[in-house]
Design goal:
Helix content: 55-70%
Radius of gyration: 17 Å
Mean pLDDT: 81
Distance between the termini: 46 Å
Structural class: mainly alpha
Number of strands: 0
């Protein structure tokens, strides 16, 4: 398998192969960014938004991802650097798993991006886009995902969010039970 983004980031991959402290700091920053994004988003949901469409989007996104990863194991690419850096994280796991198709890092940020857009939270766009780009570059440099995993993380996340927007279950919870306007 050939991933041309790996060729373009080979120098950085070799740098982090030799500089474990830098790798662990980069991993910790990425983990912290995702954790803070999830915490901020859940806080905004609790205080302001109250729509239930986020939950089916995440549940179905990760259920399908888990099923695929349980059935299909992709070999690790040369230069794979994902390691446990002993930095605590709420949403990022460091143990040895088959974590390729499709990217949960990118999918999480894309779901939050679309929900923020749906809620009219314009200020959050820049932060979410920054975190998504940061994670994309990081996962490419350390060979944590192939480029197809990252792209499909975006695609699946968008599809799951669209399906949750039109879900009858979300409509019943949001409109009929909680009385939120459409």
């Amino acid at each position: 398998m050939r991933d041309y983004t790996f060729i373009g980031t080979e120098v950085l991959n070799k740098y982090f192969m030799e500089n474990k402290v830098g790798l662990f700091i980069y991993e910790a920053i990425g983990s912290l960014a995702l954790d803070l994004l999830i915490i901020i988003y859940l806080t905004l949901w609790w205080v302001n938004w109250h729509t239930f469409r986020l939950f089916p989007a995440y549940i179905v996104f990760y259920a399908i991802r888990g099923y695929i990863q349980n059935k299909f194991f992709m070999g690790r690419p040369e230069g794979y650097l994902w390691e446990d850096n002993n930095f605590p994280s709420l949403v990022v796991v460091y143990h040895d798993i088959s974590d390729f198709y499709y990217s949960g890092h990118i999918g999480s940020t894309v779901i939050i991006f679309h929900e923020s857009y749906a809620q009219g939270w314009k200020k959050g766009f820049y932060v979410i886009v920054f975190v998504c780009c940061f994670e994309w570059v990081f996962l490419t440099i350390i060979r944590g995902h192939y480029v197809i995993d990252l792209v499909m993380g975006c695609v699946f996340a968008r599809i799951m969010h669209m399906l949750s927007e039109t879900s009858i279950i979300c409509w019943i919870c949001d409109v009929k039970i909680c009385g939120y306007p459409l």
